[in-house]
Amino acid sequence: MKTKDVRSMTDEELAVQLAEVREELFNLRFQDATGALENTTQLGVTKRKIARILTVQTEREQGLERS
Fold first, then answer.
1. Residue 65 CB: number of other CB atoms within 10 A?
2. Rounded to whole angstroms, how far apart are CA atoms 1 and 64?
3. Pick the CATH number of 3-61 from 1.20.120.80, 1.25.40.10, 1.10.287.310, 1.10.357.140
């Protein structure tokens, strides 16, 4: 998921996507704790997805919309 894709989403889509990605992060952390996670880089990728979404939401709240 690229920033351009995130910026093209509506506010409702962002909220839904954020919930899905947070659930994905929870599941990855659970797998990591139990030793079932083989590719630990997924944790970082998922955290970056969350950060992108939160950044776009904050920009919109503050009126700093970028193209």
1. 9
2. 21
3. 1.10.287.310
What pLDDT, on a 0 to 100 scale, did the predictor assign at position 57?
95
Q: 61: Cβ–Cβ under 8 A, 6 or more apart, which residues?
A: none
Largest CA distance in the chain: 43
Q: Is 44 left (phi over 0), alpha (psi -120 to 50) or beta?
A: alpha
Counting as low any pLDDT under 70, the low residues of the chain are 65-67
* Whole-angstrom distance, CA of residue 63 vs CA of residue 36: 42
Q: CA angle at residue 48 from 13 to 20, to 5 degrees?
A: 35
Structure token pair of residue 13: 């889509």
Encoded tokens for 25 = 């992060």
